[in-house]
Specification:
By secondary structure, the chain is mainly α. It is about 80% helix and about 0% strand. It has helices at about 5-15, 20-30, 35-45, 50-60, 65-90, 95-120, 120-140, 145-165.
Amino acid sequence: MAHSDDTRRAVRAAFVHDQLGLEVAAVKCGVPVATARRWIRDAREAGDDWEKARTAQMIAGGGMEAIARQTMAMFSQQAQATLQMLQDDTQIAPLERSKALASLADSFNKLVASNARLMPETDKLAVALDVIKRLSEFVRANHPQLAGGFAEILGPFGDEIARAYG
């Protein structure tokens, strides 16, 4: 059965813009999955790579940042559970415990580095907040007579940082 160009465009839109899997997009539009696979292959050969368009759409729509945030949150939960288990389980040998902690730390460092690339705005906000914290500590330790005035402007400045980076 021949499908119209409108149907093919609807499958492409569901796949690229709605971020549905190809199979789901095909079913949603009433097209056999094999036909949708043929369309995606034919489009790629004609210079319209649906996969690249889908990735670009995800990045442009902030999808990658949302995924990175979710991944970081899930990892944090799992890391806390793992740390608790390592602390509570007395049956784990010290060497195995050390290996698990090293592996967890390595995974965390890799995830943070990856997220810094995927979430540049979030990374900038984290750096800005760290600078404010360090400046506060510096003023408190080295110029305590200025602490009152500094505290007075810190609140509104924090709002400005949040608007700029958050």
